[in-house]
Write the structure tokens for this entry.
Amino acid sequence: MPSRSVLLSEAFKSHPVHLHHKHADFSSLQELPDSYAWNQPDDHPSDRSIFASKSIPVVDLNDPNALKLIGHACKTWGVFQVTNHGISTELLDDIESAGRSLFSLPLQQKLKAARSPDGVSGYGVARISSFFPKLMWSEGFTIVGSPVDHFRQLWPQDYSKFCDVIEEYEAEVKRLAGRLMWLMLGSLGISRADIKWAGPKGNFKGASAALQLNSYPACPDPDRAMGLAAHTDSTLLTILYQNSTSGLQVLREGTGWVTVPPIHGAFVVNVGDLLHILSNGLYPSVLHRAVVNRTRHRLSIAYLYGPPSSVKISPLPRLVGPGQPPLYRPITWTEYLGTKAKHFNKALSSVRVFSPVNGLADVTDHNTVKVN
Ligand SMILES: C=C1C[C@]23C[C@@]1(O)CC[C@H]2[C@@]12CCC[C@@](C)(C(=O)O1)[C@H]2[C@@H]3C(=O)O
Ligand SMILES: O=C(O)CCC(=O)C(=O)O
Ligand SMILES: [Fe+2]
């Protein structure tokens, strides 16, 4: 049987992304080239975010009410921040500095580890770039499985210390992801007996994941640029570490784009499309994007967490019944990534099987919100 990382990376074999534009050397750009100017007025309403009447929930994992607070956050926001999560600030500093070292390499060096059009791992622009006429002011590095081959290209002398940091970080965040899964599922009344694929110890040992390092260089014209366009993640959940520069925004119905303020040592956790499916829409995945800054470089590290790649995800039987039919058909993560590569923000509605009786589109399927 092929390894999990091979299976995950197979997602793009039949949906290669050919991005013809050149990778930018951002440090040499003193003005925003037209190819990076997202000039529709609606694209960048960053000011609206300051009027948000309520802010994104912050949950202390040592709080005895954590389960309830997380359930409420998932239902109403699709995102929350966690503190007291058990991952040391030293490890966060180490992963941040590994990310900085990577992105500060010369462009020619980074391109030695470029992601291939049908591959998943490596250096490149956001995979979703192909859906937009304009370029995003960011660069990324995706890790699925071992990064050793790519890291040897980037740092021929000391690649192993960078591999060690990634390995330690992934092991710690994987544990946190399992813990968060049970808090999120527990808040829906789901127990271990309901999720066989969590394994005999309930620790989601066979889970798949990708680590995505994102870099947003300082930008000469941030109001017209876009760091990462609005999207939902194709995951069960995503655990994001952001440095002290803000930029992540989430879309809240009736409010608009709300900035997720960086909290030192905290993680941002967001609901992805597969948890949306698993919860039969009770926990909707959240649309989010990243904007950029005139003077400050921003770095984020996303741990994109999903089920074992061969597991079909469908609405949990406990959450369906006579009045609540299953809204989505079963799909594996690999299949869903292929669907996303084809349909982007309409992927979720493309796996929907049951249309609302009144015929109105479901906003939680993200196809009624203008996102690009
Ligand atoms: C497992 C994955 C999810 C992801 C595609 C990927 O293969 C690795 C990168 C992930 C990411 C990060 C930035 C936003 C996003 C939409 C993208 O283009 O690449 C997500 C993908 C996703 O969640 O669909
Ligand atoms: O940089 C950010 O804050 C967002 C990154 C993100 O959405 C992603 O990697 O999926
Ligand atoms: Fe994301």
User: Anything to note?
Assistant: The first helix runs from residue 4 to 9. The CA atoms of residues 20 and 134 lie 12 Å apart.
